[in-house]
Fold this protein.
Amino acid sequence: MVKPVIFTDKLTRRFGDFIAVDELSFSVDKGEIFGFLGANGAGKTTAIRMLTGLLTPSTGAASVAGFDLYTESEKVKRNIGYMSQRFSLYDDLTVKENIRFFAGIYGLTDTAIREKSAKLLETLDLQHAANTLLRSLPLGWKQKLAFSVAILHEPKIVFLDEPTGGVDPITRRRFWDMIYEASEKGVTVFVTTHYMDEAEYCDRISIMVDGRVAALDTPEALKRQHGVESMNEVFINLARHDKTF
Amino acid sequence: MRTIFFILQKEFLQIFRNRGMLPIIFVLPFIQLVILSYAATFDISRVPFHLQDRDHSVTSRLLAEKFTASGYFILTGYSASDKESQSELVRRNADLVLVIPSGFERDLVTTGHAPVQLMINAEDGFSAGVIQTYASEIVADFNQGELKRLIPSGAVEVAGEIGMVSSSWYNPELKYTHYMVPGIIVILVTLIGLFLSGMNVVREREIGTIDQINVTPIKRYQFITGKLLPLWIIGLGELSVGLLIARLLFHVPMLGSYALVYLVAGIYLLVVLGMGLLISTVTETQQQAMFIAWFFMVIFTLLSGLFTSIESMPHWAQIMTMLNPVRHFVDIMRRVMLKGSGIAEIAIPLLILTLFAALMLALAVNRYRKVSE
């Protein structure tokens, strides 16, 4: 049996009396595109922050990329990439400088940085903008660049926290092409989203309601279980059960 | 090492690309240094001076001339009554009124004694003291010189006198700029260091890039070194320009060694930057960081002995100043520059600063967490 890349067992996070994430248990396999859905405040971001080592869990166990979240957090960090909903590259650095900085702090050699930068700029068709300050790029390009930078050090898993917020459907579609490409190369993709059409692109999805996983399966299976046509309906069905919604 | 290098590179790029901050870092401090150094002086000159001469004698005129010729006082008016003189004081047309009563010359010649009255505006007690000292000196000088000529010898019994000659060491010309400039340089270095470091990390938190940093395998010491080293270098740069201005514009002597000043400044900057970083780690926004930094800056400046001497503070405040890093650096700068003190003479404040530096950095590194609790 292949060990899952992400494994959580009753992972819980409390903020005072409020339980943001309640006994989260699931596993994600290598190369999977795992969609992490939920209404605002359902606990998605808290869960992703715990899995990326930005927030200490209150109780429960978890391993990411084969390393224990508590005791081997630095090894976890070496093997993950992260792109947050808040745009996370430096606006006052150029495209090239951003690539160089993040490649550098992940310990890539100068040769590797040079080669990877060139390749990345070519793939994104950004050569002409290499020396442009990031702040003057359109949002869609920034997001594609942020994703590329997040997987530049060839992590085993990349965490995407609402990566396509605020961009048009065409740019979103292109963004998902990049996600597929990474997935084909064996990178596990853990993605949170609000867009139900994006949920359909995932191999498996979990829907969080009130800090708990309310459903976890492939999009087809979930639609079948609920007897509906689209993920949108599945989501509304599940979320309605929550009385605060 | 390589990781630190990448952070350094990024920090420098960002600092030099920030068009709004550049003049604040590299121009404003020196404008402040020049203006403050000229303005912050306890010296008095051109004090408005009012004369109420009721004697109208040769002697009384001579005394009045002594005042106007001294250069400290500018005659702004005459009057004949106390009422008028006082209203001049109230209206601030005069800070000093010299009242020479009628019969002044006669009394002086016949009895050898003749009082004059000085009315001083003492709203600002310190200036009033200085005015009084100057005025008394002029009167004393008058006694010594003019009086002896006026009064035939033998008419007045001359008592034995104790002459006092004072000489000022370490600042022989009593130039306030020499005293102020070293201290103001310290304030500027502190201001830049505290604010830049205080706002740096919290800025990344505001933008959201701090998360991106914290998910990388970067180590805490690498991050902090990369963040603080550029500011440390900028701080020493500020000091250098400050010393250059002190030398070329104000002709402040440097009797001690520059190496010692830089050694102390290097340690001192660690205290300030550590404090800034600590502020940065406990705040959520740049405004909060600014406010806290400002709060400390005001206290540090007022309790530094820069503008008011520590000796004249109440005892408890004097003890409090020992906890103030600015106080120690101001003290060291003055001693090294004006007195030529060496490392042995400044050992105690230097040791205190070193302890502060260790404490602040330890606290800041400890408070900076890659993981939120």
Notes: Chain A has one domain: 28-58+74-240.
